[in-house]
Amino acid sequence: MSEPFVLEAAGGRRWIVGSPQDPHGDGYVQTVTTELHDDGMTASTVVKIDGQGRGSRLGRRRMVGQGRLRGRLRG
Known about the structure:
The protein has strands at residues 5-8, 14-17, 29-38, 41-50, 62-65. By secondary structure, the chain is an all-beta fold.
């Protein structure tokens, strides 16, 4: 996946999930940048997905947020 995933709603609200990156090049830890855009404000964070367990299936990975996203998109 080289392009970010973008989910847009009415009024310019957007959720953007970037492409997974392997900062160490070992295939064990992946990072993903995510952003929320609404009402002229942006919240962003980087999520670390570590490869605890065997294999590389996402279901076996533990997601650890490297920051907090507060608030929510109003519907």
